[in-house]
Amino acid sequence: MSEQYPALLVIVPLLSALVISVAGWVNKRLCFPIAVAALGVAAWSSVGLLFRVLDEGVIVYKLGGWSPPMGIAYYIDYLNGLVLPVVSIVALLNLISSKKIVEQQFPDKAGPFYTLYVLMVTGLLGIVVTGDAFNLYVLLEIASLTGYGLLAMGEERAPLATLNYLYMGTIGACFYLLGIGYLYIVTGSLNMVDIARLLPPLYQSKAVLAAFIICMVGVWLKMAFFPLHAWLPNAYTYANSASSGLIAPLMTKVMVYVMIRLILTVFTPKFVFNTLAVHDAVVWLAVIAIVMGAVLALKERNLKKMLTYIVVAEVGYMVGGAWLGNRAGLTGAVLHIVNDALMTLCVFLVVGNIVYKIKGYAFGDLKGLFAKMPFTMGAFVIGALSIIGVPPTCGFFSKWYLILGAIQAHQYGFMVALLFSSLINVVLFFRVFEIGFYEPFSDHEGHEHHPAVMAEAPLTMLVPLYVVAISLILVGLYTGDIVNHIVQFVIPKGFM
Amino acid sequence: METITSIRPLLAVLVSLLIIPLVVVSSRSPNVRESWTFVAAVAKFLIVLSMLPAILRGTEIVYTVVQFMPGAAIRFRVDALGMLFALVSSSLWIITSAYSIGYMRGLKEHGQTRYFCFFAICLSATIGAAFSANLLTLYLFYEILSLATYPLVTHHQDLEARSSGRKYLLYVVGASIGLVLPAMLICYNLAGTLEFSKNGILAGTAVSPSLLFILLFMFVFGFAKSAIMPMHSWLPAAMVAPTPVSALLHAVAVVKVGVFSIVRILTGVFGIQLLSSSHLGMAVCYVAAFTILVGSFIALSQNGLKRLLAFSTIAQLSYIVLGVALLSPKGMTGGMLHIAMHAFGKITLFFCAGAIFVATGKKNISEMIGIGRRMPVTMAAFFIASLSIIGMPPCGGFISKWYLALGTLQAHQIGFLVVLLFSSLLNACYFIPITYKAFFCRPEDAMFENKVQEAPAFCVVPLVITATISVILLFYPQPFLRLARMMVQSITGV
Amino acid sequence: MTDLISTVVAKYNYWIYITLMMIGLYAMIAKNNLVKKIVGMNIFQTAIILFYVSIGVKKGATIPILEHGHGPDVHHVVHAVDYINPLPHVLMLTAIVVGVATLGVALALAIRIYNNYNTLEENEILTQVREK
User: Fold this and answer.
1) Is the pLDDT of residue C80 over 90?
2) Which of A169, A346, A468, C130 could form a disulfide bond with A383, CB atoms 3.0-4.6 angstroms apart?
3) Each residue of A166-211: pLDDT tens digit?
4) Which residues, at least 6 apart from A172, have a Cβ–Cβ distance to it below 8 Å?
C-alpha cells in the first residue's frame, strides 16, 4: 500500500473528481463527503510519503512501470516531501470549512464546485510530485484551468478579474512550456534529473540561458512576483471565500516550489548562482516586490484585498530568499513556503467566516467584530502575529532565516525590506484590530457594560480555523526539527 | 558554576497562562474568577520562591524548551538578577490582584474578564523575560508582553485609548521589530550564539568599533520599554490605562523588562570588558543621565498625577541603566537593587493615585488640596513612598541611591554624582508639595470635608502593604541586596 | 548583412513562431474587445505549438512510422535520422487539448461577463464597474 502512495496521491483525487461530478447529478449531498474522503486519502498518503522519505531518502516512483527518460517518473525528495503534506492538508482544511459557504452561496452548484476543487488539488499535488518537466506543464494547466473556474464563482466582478488572470496565467504557462522546449532542444530529455545530468557541459550555451530566463519569467507570472502581480488582487478578492481560501494559500506557494525545483534540481545552483550571477538583481526585484506589496496593501480599505497584497509581498520574501544564494536564505524560503501557506490559509479562513456572518469584508463592515465573533478574531490575531513575525509563531522563524541569509549575503537592502514589511504589517493588522475593537465604543467612556451579541461562525468553520491557528504556533516551536530533519537535506551539499 | 536542570522556570511562566481558560469559563461569577487569579499569583510566587534557596547557594537553574538552531533556543536560566526581578514582579502581582478587584469593581469597569486574562499573560511574559537564558527567548517574551499589554492600555476603548494604543505600538513594537530584531540577527551572525555569557558573547569577535556602537544603541533604543529618551513618550500616553495596569505594568513589569533587557545586553551580550575598553559604557551613561534630568524637569510641570508619576518613572528607570553602565561594582549593585526598591515605591504611588480616583474621581494634583483630611491613610502611604523615590530614609530607595552614588565615585565620575543628587532634589520638589498641600493647607483652601472616607478596603490594604515593605526594605534589604551582589560578583569577580 | 539574412533564413521557424507570439501578445495587450484578446491568447498558444512541432523536423526524414514494420523483414535496423522526432508532436497533442480547454474557459467567462454588463468592450465594462 505505502509503495503506491505517490500514485494514490494524484489518482484518488482525479478519479473522485469524476465520481463527484456524477454524484452531483444524483444527489448533491453526496459530493462533499466524497471530496473529503478523496482529499483525506491524499493527505494520508502525503504524510505517509513524508515519513517514508525521512526513513529511506529519495523515492523514485515510475508511473506505469516505464523507466525514465522514456516514462514519467515521480521523484519524492525532501523538498516535495515537505510541500506535499502542506498542500494536501491546507486543501482538506479549507474544504471542510467551505461546506457551509457552498450551502449558503451556491447550493445548486455544489457538484461542479467540489469537482473543480478536487481537480485543482489533483493538479497542485501533481505539480509538486512530478519529476517530468512537461508533465509539470500539463498539471499546471489542470490546476490553473480549474482555478479559473473556481475563482469565477464569485461576485459580479469575479468573471472579469478571472479573465485577466486567465490571460496572464496562460502567458505564464506558455513561457514555461517554451523554456522547456529550449531545454529539450539542447538535452533531448524532459526528465528533470536527466536534464540536470546532461546540462553541465552546456552551461555556456545561449539556449540554456534562454530556457532558464523564459522559464523563470513564466513561473514569476504565475506566482504574481511584482511587477507581474497585477492579476492577483482582483482575482482573489472577488472570488467566493471557499475558492480564495484554497487558491490564495496554495497557488503562489506551489509556483515558488516550482521555481526552487527548477533552480535546485533542473538547472542546478552551480549554473544559477555561479555561471549566471544575476542573483543580486533578482534579490533587488524581490526588495521592490516586498516594499510595493506592503505599500499597496496600506492603500486598501478592504480586508480581503489588503490580504491579497500581503500575498504579493510574501512572494517577494520567498523569491528573494531563494535567490540570496546561501544556505540560510534558501532554508528561509523553503520554510516560508510551509509557513506562508498556513498563515495565508488562516487569514483567508477568517475572511470566510466574516463573510459568512457579516456578508462583507470592507473595513466599514468590521466594526465591533471582537465582540461579535471573538473566536474568529482570536484566530485572526494569531494569523496576523505570524504574518507580522512575532515569536513563537512560525512566521518569525522563516523571517529569521531570511534575514540571516540577507546578512550573510550582505544584501542589506533585502534585510531592510523584510523589516519594513513587518512594520507595515503591524500597521495593517492593528488598523483592522482597532476597527474591530473600538468602533462601537468610540463615543463613550466605556465604563458601562456592553452586552456583546455573539454571532459566531458555525463549528465546521471554526474547527479548521483553529487547527490552522494552533499549527502556526506548533510549526513555529518545531522549526528546529523541521530544519534539521527535512529542510537541510533539501539544499545540496557544498552549497554555502 | 553549578547548574541544575529543572522544569520549575517553565512552570513559573506557564502557571498564569493555565488559569486563563478557568478565568474565561467562570466569567459570570466574578468572585470565582478573581480567586483563580489569586491562585495563579500565589502559585507563581511560590514557584519562584522555591528556586530562591538554590540561587542563593550560587547555583543556576536551567531548562531548555526547544532548540531551534545552534546557539538559539527557547531556554530558561535562572540567575541572581533574573531571580531578583522575578521575585519583585511575582510578589507584587499578588498585591496588585487584590488592588485590581477593588479598583475595577469600585469603578464598575467593563470587560473585566478580558482584563484579568491579559494581566495573567503579561505576568507570564514578565517572568519568562526574567528567566531568559538568551536573547531570542528574551525577545520572544518581550514581544508577547508588548502585545498582551495593548488591550490593557486601551481598556477603555475610547478615542483617547485608541490614540494612546497607537503610540504605544509605534514605540514599543516598532522599535523592537525595527531595531532589536536586526541587531539580534547581526549579533547571531557575528557570534554564532545568542546565549548570555559572563564575558559577553561579542567579546571574542572581531567587530569594528563603529558597528559595536551602532549595535549597542540599536539595542538601547530598541528596547523602548525602558523609556530612555527619545523613546519615552509612550509611557505618559499609556497612563490612560486603568490604574492597576499603570501600577504593576508601567511601574514594575513592562518598563522593568525594558531596563532588564538593557542590563542583559550590557552584561551578557557586550560584557563589561568590551564596554569599558571601547568606552561605550560612558556613552550609555550620558544618554541615561540626560533622561534622568529631562524626565525630572518635565515631571515638575505636570498637573495630572499619573502623568507626573510616569515622568518620574522615566527618570528612575534611567537610574538603573546609569548604574549598570557605570560598570563599577557598587554602581551595578545599586542599579540592580533599584529595580526592586523603585518597584515597591512607585507601585505604592500608583495605588494611591488609583485610590484617590476611585474615592473622589480626581486625577489632577491641583484638585487634591486638603485631600489628606479625607484620605489620611492613602496620603500617608503616598508620603512614605515618595520618600523612597526621592531616596531618603526611612525607605528602601535610600539604599539603592546610596550604592549608585558610591558607584559614581568608584568609577571616578563626579559629574554623574551631581546628576544623581540634583535629580533627587528635583524629585523632592515635585513630590513633597503634593503631600504638604494634602495635609497642611489653610482650611478655607481645602477642597474636601474633614470626614474620613477612604477608597474600598481592597484598594487601601494593598497600598499600605507596599508602603510598609518600602520601609522594611531599608532595614532588611534581603534577599534583593544579596542577589544583586551575587550577580555583580559573578560578572566582575569583585 | 548577408550573415544576418542567412541567420534569419536558416532559422526561419523561430522567426515565424516569434512573430506569431508577438501578434498574439499585441492583441492581448492592445485590443479592447475581450473576444479579440481571447483570440490573441489562442494565437500565442498556437505559436508555441508550432515551435514545438518545428523542432521535431529533420531534413530528408519521414514521418515516424516504421517502414516495413510488419511482414517478413521486421528485424532490420532503424536509423533515427530517417524519421522526424515524434516526441514534440506527441507533447503538442496534449498542449492542443490544453489550448482548447483554456479557450473554452475563456469564452465561458466572456459569456458571463456579457450577461453581467451587456458588452464585451473592456473600457465600457470598466466604466460600468466604476459607476457602481
Assistant:
1) no
2) A346
3) 999 999 999 999 999 998 888 888 888 888 888 888 888 888 888 9
4) A217, A218, A219, A220, A221, A222, A228
How do the domains of chain B map onto residue ranges? Answer: 271-494
Q: What is the pTM of this model?
A: 0.91
C50 touches chain A (CB under 8 A): no
Q: Please state, in angstroms and rounded to a whole number, the distance separating the CA atoms of residues B88 and B253.
A: 9
Domain that residue A400 falls in = 278-496
Residue B343, C-alpha cell as written in the block? 518597584
CB A300 within 8 A of CB A306: yes
- Residue A172 counted as domain residue: no
CA–CA gap between residue B418 and residue B421 (Å, rounded):
5
Angular region, B111: left φ>0, alpha ψ -120 to 50, beta rest: left
Bridge partners, residue A73, by sequence: A62
Confidence of residue A308 (pLDDT cuts 50, 70, 90): very high
Give the dihedral sign, CA B319/B325/B326/B327.
positive
Cα-to-chain-centroid distance, residue A33: 24
Band (pLDDT 50/70/90 cuts) for residue A2 is: low
Q: For residue B433, is pLDDT > 90? A: no
- Counting the structural domains of chain A, the total is 1
Domain with residues C2-64+79-131, CATH architecture? Orthogonal Bundle (1.10)
- Minimal C-alpha gap between A243 and chain B (Å): 32
User: What are the tens digits of pLDDT across the range A10-23?
Assistant: 889 999 999 998 88
* Reported ipTM exceeds the 0.85 cut: yes
SS3 labels along A194-243: HHHHHCHHHCCCHHHHHHHHHHHHHHHHHHCCCCCCCCHHHHHHHECHHH
Q: Does the CB of C113 have a partner CB in chain A at under 8 Å?
A: yes
The residue among A402, A425, A434 with the most chain B CBs within 10 A of its CB, best to mutate, is: A434
Kindly tell me the burial class for residue A443, based on how many C-beta atoms sit within 10 Å of its own C-beta (0-12, 13-18, 19 or more).
Answer: exposed
Q: Which long-range contacts (CB under 8 A, 24 or more apart) does A474-477 make?
A: A475/A338, A475/A339, A475/A342, A475/A394, A476/A386, A476/A391, A476/A392, A476/A393, A476/A394, A476/A395, A476/A396, A476/A397, A477/A392, A477/B65, A477/B66, A477/B74
Taking CB atoms and an 8 Å cutoff, what residues of chain A touch C94?
A: 134, 138
Residue C39, chain A, CB below 8 Å: the answer is no
pLDDT digits (tens, 9 = 90+) for C103-120: 999 999 999 999 988 888
CA distance B321 to B332: 9
A280 vs A267: CA distance, rounded Å: 18
- Residue A439 domain-assigned (yes or no): yes
